[in-house]
Amino acid sequence: MPPGRSPVAVLRRRRALLPLVLLLPLVLLILILIFPPHSVPALVNVVPGLQTCDYSSGEWVPDASAESHLRYDHTCKEIFKGWNCVGNGKRNGRALLRWRWKPAGCELLPRLDPLLFLQRHRNTNIGFVGDSLNRNMFVSLVCMLRGVTGEVRKWRPAGADRGFTFLRYNLTLSYHRTNLLVRYGRWSASSNGGPLESLGFKQGYRVDVDIPDQTWAEAPSFHDVLIFNTGHWWLAPSKFDPIQSPMLFFEKGTPIIPPLLPPAGLDLALKHMITFVNKAMRPNGVKFFRTQSPRHFEGGDWDDGGSCQRDQPMSSEEVEELFSLENNGTNAEVRLVNQHLLKALEQSTFRVLNVTHMSEFRADAHPSTTGGKKHDDCMHWCLPGPTDTWNDLLATNLAAIES
Ligand SMILES: *[C@@H]1O[C@H](CO)[C@@H](O)[C@H](O)[C@H]1NC(C)=O
Ligand SMILES: *[C@@H]1O[C@H](CO)[C@@H](O)[C@H](O)[C@H]1NC(C)=O
Ligand SMILES: *[C@@H]1O[C@H](CO)[C@@H](O)[C@H](O)[C@H]1NC(C)=O
Question: What is the value of pTM for the model shown?
Answer without folding.
Answer: 0.87
